[in-house]
Amino acid sequence: xxxxxxxxxxxxxxxxxxxxxxxxxxxxxxxxxxxxxxxxxxxxxxxxxxxxxxxxxxxxxxxxxxxxxxxxxxxxxxxxxxxxxxxxxxxxxxxxxxxxxxxxxxxxxxxxxxxxxxxxxxxxxxxxxxxxxxxxxxxxxxxxxxxxxxxxxxxxxxxxxxxxxxxxxxxxxxxxxxxxxxxxx
Length: 185
Known about the structure:
The protein has 185 residues and is mainly alpha-helical. The chain is 46% helix and 8% strand. A two-stranded antiparallel ribbon has the order 1-2.
């Protein structure tokens, strides 16, 4: 069983994991990395009808539910990937490891961590192997937030698979996992 109670051979879980790997490997489009647009549309607004992301979808109109005060401080895809990477890690990550996991450079990862600390979603801890280094971990609030948007994505995947047979689900999961593993970094 995974940490959320799903079986590791569950096609929905396999598809979710493959999509997460692909999200971490893609390069952000201009204005999408969260520095200025905070994951919003081209003109700084959330897309009409909600939806927000090809991976999440299904949200009501306006900003997604995890956006603080509707201003998008967490809406940037890189910030979401940061929280997901920390949730998936078995131990806290260094800033460099976190940057590698989400496909951003070390200065960008540092800014994301600082914003996460300010929002109470992540915390810095001393590295037990080297007290001069810090590790980054989710807070309880951050973990709760990740469970919320991960649940939304799983529900979306499950809905998309409604017309598939069990054999088709398993084959699709196998193929998209193979595709994600082959995707260049």
